[in-house]
Amino acid sequence: MQLAEQFDRAAGRYDVLTRLNPGYHRALREAATALVSRLRGSSAPLRLWDLGCGSGLSTRALLDAAGTEVTVVGLDASAGMLEQAGTKDWPDGVRFVQARAQELPRVAAEELAGPADGVFAAYLLRNVPEDQRDATVAAIHDQVRPGGWVALQDYHVKGDTVASAVWTLVCWGVVMPLAVVLRGNPAIYRYLWRSVLDNDSTARLSSRLDRAGLTEQTWSTAGGWQRGILHTVLARRPG
Predict the structure, then answer these.
(1) Are 180 and 186 in contact (CB under 8 A)?
(2) Which residue, 101, 185, 227, 236, could crosslink 10 as a Cys pair with Cβ 3.0–4.6 Å?
(3) Beta-carbon contacts of residue 166 (< 8 Å; ≥ 6 apart)
(4) Tens of pLDDT, residues 192-216
(5) CA–CA separation, 196 vs 173, rounded Å?
(6) Is the pLDDT of residue 227 over 70?
């Protein structure tokens, strides 16, 4: 089964499960706020991409940070996730597009007249095949105006024995049992576990950003059980 179809099956319970993850929503809000704070002083309204927007939780975080006078285009490959996003109330400046992140150059030409001020991508790149990640990061760079910013948030544990062990313990001891109880498609959470273990290390992602021409990288990690596991990087396209 294709990955997007697995997310389709999990979509109905996705928001419920994220509410049970301590710090999930706080981390999204903090990353969105950090991105928007670097864009203050840009022409209003801000124009933002939300890549891998899922059910719209990251989109909501962007709106909370930027206010309703903003244009946000959410992109996701899962029709089921976008269906969940569509059930929520959004201001006129928000719209959603079904596409893979690798299709960003084509979608951008159709959805935004010119580059955006910023890009937010939470839990996205590890779902992109490894041999396509450099091209995807380069496309993200190209869709941000000179002087604009990118915020990437994801789980990175490769090379950290303790973080990998904690991640495995949480997935098998908490996340997957909850997915069974809540009928949230446990298969996608088994994939989540594996995909994080296989995901780029922070150093490798940093190198991808360097190659794409994104500079002024600032890294941070979440608190609580996610410390050393969930990381956020902000980077700038030089003006």
Answers:
(1) yes
(2) 185
(3) 225, 228, 229
(4) 999 999 999 999 999 999 999 999 9
(5) 16
(6) yes
CA atoms within 13 A on the CB side of 153: 28
pTM exceeds cut of 0.70: yes
3-state secondary structure 153-178: EEECCCCCHHHHHHHHHHHHHHHHHH
Rounded to 10 degrees, the C-alpha dihedral 77/143/94/34 comes to 100
Q: Compute the CA torsion angle 225, 226, 229, 231 (nearest 10 deg).
A: -160
Strands 94-98 and 116-122: unpaired
Domain residue ranges of the chain, discontinuous segments joined by +? 15-156+200-236
Using H for helix, E for strand and C for coil, what is the string for the chain?
CCHHHHHHHHHHHHHHHHHCCCCHHHHHHHHHHHHHHHHCCCCCCEEEEEECCCCCHHHHHHHHHHCCCEEEEEEECCHHHHHHHHCCCCCCCEEEEECCHHHHHHHHHHHCCCCEEEEEEECCHHHCCHHHHHHHHHHHHHCEEEEEEEEEEEECCCCCHHHHHHHHHHHHHHHHHHHHHCCCCHHHHHHHHHHHHHCCCHHHHHHHHHHHCCEEEEEEECCHHHCCCEEEEEEECCC
**Do residues 179 and 186 lie in contact, with contact meaning Cβ atoms separated by under 8 Å?**
yes
What tokens appear for 18 in the block?
Answer: 């994220």
